[in-house]
Amino acid sequence: MAHREMAGPPQSCLVDSRSGFCRSNSTFYSKRTPLTLPANPSLDVTTFISSQPHRGTTAFIDAATGHRLSFSDLWRAVDRVADYLHHEIGIRKGDVVLILSPNSIHVPVVCLSVMSLGAVLTTANTLNTVGEISKQISDSNPKLAFTTPDLAPKLADSAIPLVLERVGPTRGVKVVGILSEMMKKEPSGKRVRERVNQDDTAVMLYSSGTTGPSKGVISSHGNLTAQMARFVSDKWKEEEIFLCTVPMFHTFGLICFAMGTVALGTTVVILRRFELHDMMAAVEKYRATILALAPPVVVAMINGADLIKAKYDLSSLRMVRCGGAPLSKEVTEGFLEKYPTVDIFAGYALTESNGAGASIESVEESRRYGAAGLLSSGVEARIVDPETGRVMGANQTGELWLKGPSIAKGYFRNKEATDETINSEGWLKTGDLCYIDDDGFLFVVDRLKELIKYKGYQVPPAELEALLMTHPDILDAAVIPFPDKEAGQYPMAYVARKLESNLSEKQVIDFISKQVAPYKKIRKVAFINSIPKSVSGKTLRKDLIKLATSKL
């Protein structure tokens, strides 16, 4: 396969070897090995992954059942499922296919099959309510959905044809295939598929917006291939055994574990759903070497360390990779104190960057406590003053902008949001306040965007505020992040009641909990005479956050 190396800094650039900063264009460049990308423009990401040489044997293991899928069986299954989708169901390039499923060894089979056809993969959070899922369906208009018999009722109102993971009782849905049977069916031999180009859309993952509903992030085969090329260049050992606890509907789980590890030839043990002791038992049983976790799980491991170490043999575990939210210095130090033989490596990325951003890749780098890591290979960064737009240098805090081949194309059918987030030069405005130090390490200070991060899940306050405003007793409302040791943050509501109302905290909490996924629930309510607003009518959340946290 022909390759091309990513263009580095322009000739005129004098890049500081220590920080990676170029004064002439105020851009930070990655200090990692340059990224090598395939030269062929007609290449789908599935073909790129399947072309990677490795000597790995077992691709996936189901933690609960012990069922194993070898690499040869995986690729045979991908070929058969793609053939069935194309010839029997009529899935074509550009068609959207939805996955609503807990983690399973079948998710990677579906992902790779769908993308090999040039069809577009979209995923839904299994915790979402019927209402939340139907909004996503009306936006993305999928032609087909993969799900389990347990989750099929959530799709009953949509009338989308379903492929079920296995045979099971279902009512009121149209089933057009059983995945376990499709994986055994011999291909038709008619390989008539449309040509897929690097610019074609591969996935549409929904990212919570700060205002209104979540938006479909459009990523191309080229975007994903760039991230796969990064994985391959990192030279992981094939004997590594990863334990996947993060959801595969999320960019972290999907890109790392449904795709990246397949390119590497490493084994992934898949937990259907996260439970701390199930995870520890799986580490012991399968001799897992690497765990991928969100920060709240790291906190749970610290808090339960004595019991965990007494009950489970974790001697195989050598590394925890942590993403989804910033990892504080206190948490890092606390973890290393309890688990001195396990390294903890932080990372930073967004759905819109497809895994690119910054990461820690060595024990030496991990000693820079609180850092998210060095910029990923092929990534450029700027630190921009959010007030003036001035581009700044090392050790100055501003909004982080990122650029590189993994940056998504934009938001589905939302030009306004795309133009607001990705400028004409291809810079992604992350909405995160950051600085890059003299050694090129990225530190995340705070979020400019107002998303609440609950256990690694993103909760948009505006969505909860809109629901609160539908209550007959509520005049006005604002939702803010409230700090919490275990969850990171949780949604807290400030509510202005109508004069004659005696609405209680419990009534407000119950009203919302019936309408949203568990992670979006409001967990604390304070009543206030009026919600503070700016001259232009924007809610002054910072004032409310100060008020809420002043009593801590």
SSE layout and pairing:
Elements: E1 3-5, E2 21-22, E3 27-29, E4 36-38, H1 45-50, E5 58-62, E6 68-70, H2 71-89, E7 96-100, H3 106-116, E8 120-123, H4 130-140, E9 144-147, E10 162-164, E11 175-178, H5 179-182, E12 201-207, E13 215-220, H6 221-233, E14 241-244, H7 251-264, E15 267-270, H8 276-286, E16 290-293, H9 295-303, H10 305-311, E17 319-322, H11 329-338, E18 343-349, E19 357-359, H12 363-366, E20 373-375, E21 380-384, E22 391-392, E23 398-403, E24 410-411, H13 415-421, E25 428-436, E26 441-447, E27 452-454, E28 457-459, H14 461-468, E29 474-484, E30 488-497, H15 505-513, E31 524-527, H16 541-549
Parallel strand pairs: 5-15, 7-8, 7-9, 8-12, 9-10, 10-11, 14-15, 14-16, 16-17, 17-18, 30-31
Antiparallel strand pairs: 1-4, 2-3, 3-21, 5-6, 12-13, 13-24, 18-19, 19-20, 20-26, 21-22, 21-23, 23-25, 25-26, 27-28, 29-30
Helix pairs in contact: 2-3, 3-7, 6-7, 9-11
User: Largest sheet, described in full?
Assistant: 16 strands, mixed
| Shape by Cα distribution | globular
Strand content: 25-35%
Number of H/I helices: 16
| CATH top-level class of the largest domain | Alpha Beta
What is the CATH superfamily classification of the largest domain?
ANL, N-terminal domain
| Percent helix range | 25-40%
| Total count of domains | 2
Class inferred from helices and paired strands: alpha/beta
CATH topology of the largest domain, what is it called? Rossmann fold
Question: What CATH architecture of the largest domain would you give?
Answer: 3-Layer(aba) Sandwich
N- to C-terminal distance: 59 Å
Mean pLDDT: 90
> Over all CA atoms, what is the radius of gyration?
23 Å
Number of strands: 31
